[in-house]
C-alpha cells in the first residue's frame, strides 16, 4: 500500500511537470507588436510600444513618396500593409498588426526629413523646445534660469527668447547651443523679467524688459540703445518705416526712432498696454486694458478713432483686407472697419472663463483664435461664422498662447503643458507634444524653405 502511494505521487509530480512545461512554452496568441522598422540604408526607427507610434528621420532630399519598409513582427503576427511594399510616407502611414488570435493593433508611422519644419516654443519650466512640425517629436531643448512667458523669434539661424531670469537668450536654431545672453538692467521695484516677444529687423533685435525697451545687435547681443518707459514693458514691439512702436504698463503707446531710441511721440490710454501694436495704412492699432481699441496716426500719435468693448484687452490686433480683429475679456472677438472703427461683426464665446487674451491669426478666409474657455476656434473672417471648435484644455485664466499656421497645420500651446498641432481646415488634432510646464508662449516655426512663421502676438506677423 505504501509503495502504491509513492508510485501515485510520483506520477502526479511527473504529470504536473509536463503540464507546467507545456504551459510555459505555449505561445501567447494575443501578441501583436512591430518589433523593428527600417528603410534600407536609412537607419532604424524609434518605436513607442505604449503609444503605438513609430518615428524615423531620413536624410534631406529623400523621396518620401515611395519608400519601402522592412518590418519585423512578434511571433505568429501579420501586418497590413505588408512589409516590403512601397508606401507614400510624405504623410503619416497606418499599419495594422494582427495576432494569431485575430486581435489587432494599429501603429502610425511618421517619417520626416532631417531638414524639415521646426516649431519653437517656450514653457514655464524655463525651457525652449524645438519640435519637428510633422510629428511632434522633440529635436532639442535648451534651458534658462527662469520661467518663460514670452514667445521666441528667429533670424539668420538664431532663435531668441526672453526669460524671467532677466536675460534674453540667443540659441542655435539647429542645435540649441547657446550663442549669447544679455542681462537687462535691474529694477528694484519689480522682480519681473522679460515677457516681451522680441522682433528682429535690419540686424537689430528689439524687446521689452522691466520698464525699458532694448535694441541689441542680433548677431552678437551688444546693446545699441535702451529707452526708459513710464511703466513695465510686456508689450511686444513692432517696427515699421524706421519707427518702433510699443506700449507700457502706464497705458502709454510710444513711437521711437528705431536707430537711436529717440522718442518721436507718445499716446496715453486709460490703462496698461500689454499687446503689440499693428501697423497698416499709416495707422497704428493698439489695444488697452482700459477695454478700448485705438487707431492712431503713425506719424503723430493723434487718435483717429476708438472702439469700446466690455472687457479689458490683452489680445494683439490682427489685420486683413481693411478689417481689424481683436479679442476681449468680455468673451467676444470683434471685427472692425479699419478706417472708421465701426463694428462689422462680433463672435461670442461661451462657458466658464470665456475670455480671449490670446491674439487672433488671420490667413486666407479664416481666422483662428484661442480662448480661455479651453477652446481654439476657426472662424470665417468675413462673417464671423464658426467653422469649427476644438476643445484643448479645461477653462483657465492663462490661455495666452496664440496660434501659428504653416502648411495647413495650426500650432498652439496650452495650460495643460502641451503644444498642439491641428488640421487648420477641421480643427482635428494631428499630434501633441508634452513640455515640462505650462505653455503661455506662442509658437514660432522655421520652414524647411528658410521662411519663418509667427503667431499674431509677434510684431513680425504684421
Automatic annotation (TrEMBL):
| Domain Pyrrolo-quinoline quinone repeat, first and last residues per copy | 213-308, 317-398, 400-448
In this protein, which residues make up the domain named DUF5018?
Answer: 30-111
Stored InterPro entries: DUF5018, PQQ_b-propeller_rpt, PQQ_rpt_dom, Quinoprotein_ADH-like_sf, WD40/YVTN_repeat-like_dom_sf
Stretch forming the signal peptide? 1-19
Q: Which UniProt keywords apply?
A: Signal
Listed name of the protein: Outer membrane protein assembly factor BamB, contains PQQ-like beta-propeller repeat
Species name: Pseudarcicella hirudinis
Amino acid at each position: 500500500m505504501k509503495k502504491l502511494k509513492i508510485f501515485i505521487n510520483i506520477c502526479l509530480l511527473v504529470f504536473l511537470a509536463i503540464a507546467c512545461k507545456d504551459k510555459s512554452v505555449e505561445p501567447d496568441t494575443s501578441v501583436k507588436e512591430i518589433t523593428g522598422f527600417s528603410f534600407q540604408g536609412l537607419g532604424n526607427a524609434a518605436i513607442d510600444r505604449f503609444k503605438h507610434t513609430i518615428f524615423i528621420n531620413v536624410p534631406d532630399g529623400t523621396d518620401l513618396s515611395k519608400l519601402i519598409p522592412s518590418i519585423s513582427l512578434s511571433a505568429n503576427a501579420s501586418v497590413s500593409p505588408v512589409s516590403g511594399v512601397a508606401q507614400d510616407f510624405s504623410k503619416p502611414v497606418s499599419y495594422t498588426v494582427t495576432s494569431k488570435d485575430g486581435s489587432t493593433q494599429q501603429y502610425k508611422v511618421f517619417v520626416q526629413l532631417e531638414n524639415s519644419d521646426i516649431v519653437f516654443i517656450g514653457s514655464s519650466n524655463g525651457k525652449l523646445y524645438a519640435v519637428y512640425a510633422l510629428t511632434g517629436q522633440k529635436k532639442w531643448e535648451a534651458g534658462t534660469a527662469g520661467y518663460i512667458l514670452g514667445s521666441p523669434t528667429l533670424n539668420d539661424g538664431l532663435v531668441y527668447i526672453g526669460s524671467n531670469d532677466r536675460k534674453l537668450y540667443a540659441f542655435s536654431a539647429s542645435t540649441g547651443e547657446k550663442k549669447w545672453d544679455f542681462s537687462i538692467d535691474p529694477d528694484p521695484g519689480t522682480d519681473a523679467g522679460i515677457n516681451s516677444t522680441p522682433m528682429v529687423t535690419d540686424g537689430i533685435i528689439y524687446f521689452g524688459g522691466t520698464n525699458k525697451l532694448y535694441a541689441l545687435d542680433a548677431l552678437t547681443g551688444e546693446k545699441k540703445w535702451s529707452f526708459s518707459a513710464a511703466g513695465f514693458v510686456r508689450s511686444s514691439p513692432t517696427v515699421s518705416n524706421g519707427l518702433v512702436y510699443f506700449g507700457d504698463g502706464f497705458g502709454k503707446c510710444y513711437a521711437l526712432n528705431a536707430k537711436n531710441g529717440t522718442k518721436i511721440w507718445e499716446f496715453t490710454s486709460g490703462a496698461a498696454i500689454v499687446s503689440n501694436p499693428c501697423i497698416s495704412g499709416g495707422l497704428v492699432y493698439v489695444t488697452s486694458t482700459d477695454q478700448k481699441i485705438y487707431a492712431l496716426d503713425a506719424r503723430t500719435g493723434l487718435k483717429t478713432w476708438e472702439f469700446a468693448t466690455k472687457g479689458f484687452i490683452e489680445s494683439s490686433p490682427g489685420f486683413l483686407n481693411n478689417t481689424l480683429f481683436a479679442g476681449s475679456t468680455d468673451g467676444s472677438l470683434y471685427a472692425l472697419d479699419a478706417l472708421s472703427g465701426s463694428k462689422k461683426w462680433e463672435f461670442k464665446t461661451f462657458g466658464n472663463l470665456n475670455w480671449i487674451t490670446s491674439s487672433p491669426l488671420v490667413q486666407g478666409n479664416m481666422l483662428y483664435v484661442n480662448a480661455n474657455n479651453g477652446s481654439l476656434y476657426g472662424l470665417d473672417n468675413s462673417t464671423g461664422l464658426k467653422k469649427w471648435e476644438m476643445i484643448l484644455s479645461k477653462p483657465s485664466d492663462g490661455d495666452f498662447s496664440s496660434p501659428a499656421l504653416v502648411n495647413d497645420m495650426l500650432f498652439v500651446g496650452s495650460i495643460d503643458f502641451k503644444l498642439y498641432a491641428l488640421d487648420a481646415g477641421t480643427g482635428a488634432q494631428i499630434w501633441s507634444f508634452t513640455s515640462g510646464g505650462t505653455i503661455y508662449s506662442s509658437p514660432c516655426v522655421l520652414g524647411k524653405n528658410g521662411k519663418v512663421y509667427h503667431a499674431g502676438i509677434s510684431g513680425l506677423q504684421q
